[in-house]
Amino acid sequence: MATRRGDTLIFSDPPVIASHATVGGKKEGEGPLAAGFDELRADNSFGRSGWEAAEAELQLRAARLCLKKAQIPEKEVSLVLAGDLQAQCTASNYAMRALGIPYAGLFGACSTMAEALGLGAALCSAGMADGLLAMSSSHFCAAERQFRTPLSYGAVRTPTAQWTATAAGACLLRPAGPGVGIRAVTFGRVQDYQIKDINNMGAAMAPAAAATLLHYLRDTHSEPQDFDAIYTGDLGHVGSQLFRELLAAEGLLLKNHVDCGCILYDAEAQTVKSGGSGAGCCAAVLCAHILPRLERGTQKRLLFLATGALMSQTTFLQKESIPAIAHLVELWAPKKEGTA
């Protein structure tokens, strides 16, 4: 079971990420993390007739690859926690239609993967799930059509804009056993600094990332230097700088901060402006880069702090500000045999 300190759940017997998989598209295959993906496709349609259906296929492939790596059939999965950026979690809904496993849809925008891991860890720790899939996805073309303008419009991207990842990541959680341990989870509170520019998600999300990290550090009496790395999700280059400035104002100078949106692509060579974004961005970086480093022992203890901008097509058109949220998951490297 978990104990609660402030906004943070601490697991005395940590649930584990027993298996993980990630699938990406063409641009992800050209990026610096390409070697960590389980599957990459040069055709972003994934054999489907529309972008929305392509994302459902993308997510379905990630789920099945994750289960294949764990060598368990779909019928042994207790629950799937999944979400995406499409209206009413369309991609997840249609992927789960094909998978046929009990399913709860989530929406935390780009923070969805951390939200799924946190809720999944709590369910596993309480003995309410064994073999739980936590996953999220995004698709560049589907997101552009929904939130901005169709690709054929040819709109000019601003320097603060980010590139929505065409990617999905899936993790299989278990109450115990071999795998990367989930030691703690901090669920965030909505922050709104009155940012209204839909092409500057980093500025909207940075305050939420800072607020959740500060809550976690206070709840656990930890310091940033206690961790090999603090990974934020999808702040991009602009948002990451703002995040560090906000923490510096609180007396915290981060020297171990890495942003998933900054490392998924080569910002200059791949012309992604401020970096990557989307619910599939931090999910892909988690499964293709972060978890393998923990499994190899390259890193021992780190924080995964995913951020999400919570606007909709309607609120954007109504000139509303963009509220944001961030959820944090503390991850530990697997225990070696014979250690306590």
Structure description:
The protein is an alpha/beta fold and 340 residues long. It has two domains: 2-174, Stage V sporulation protein AD (Peroxisomal Thiolase, Chain A, domain 1, 3-Layer(aba) Sandwich); 180-332, Peroxisomal Thiolase, Chain A, domain 1. It contains ten helices and 15 strands. It has helices spanning 26-29, 51-70, 90-99, 112-125, 140-147, 201-220, 236-248, 260-263, 279-296, 313-317, and strands at residues 2-5, 8-11, 16-24, 39-40, 79-83, 103-105, 132-138, 163-164, 167-174, 180-186, 229-233, 257-259, 276-277, 301-309, 324-332. Strands 1, 2, 3, 4, 5, 6, 7, 9, 10, 11, 12, 14 and 15 form a 13-stranded mixed β-sheet that branches. Strands 8-13 form a two-stranded parallel sheet. Helix 2 (51-70) packs across helix 3. The longest helix has 20 residues, at 51-70. The chain is globular and about 55 Å long.
Spell out the key features of this protein.
2 domains, two-stranded parallel ribbon, 13-stranded mixed sheet, Peroxisomal Thiolase, Chain A, domain 1, single chain, Thiolase-like, alpha/beta, acyltransferase activity, 340 residues, 15 strands
Q: Which percent bin holds the helix content?
A: 25-40%
**Spans of at least 5 consecutive residues with low confidence:** none
Distance between the termini: 19 Å
CATH architecture of the largest domain, by name, is 3-Layer(aba) Sandwich
Please state the oligomeric state of the protein chains shown: single chain
The Rg value, from CA coordinates, equals 18 Å
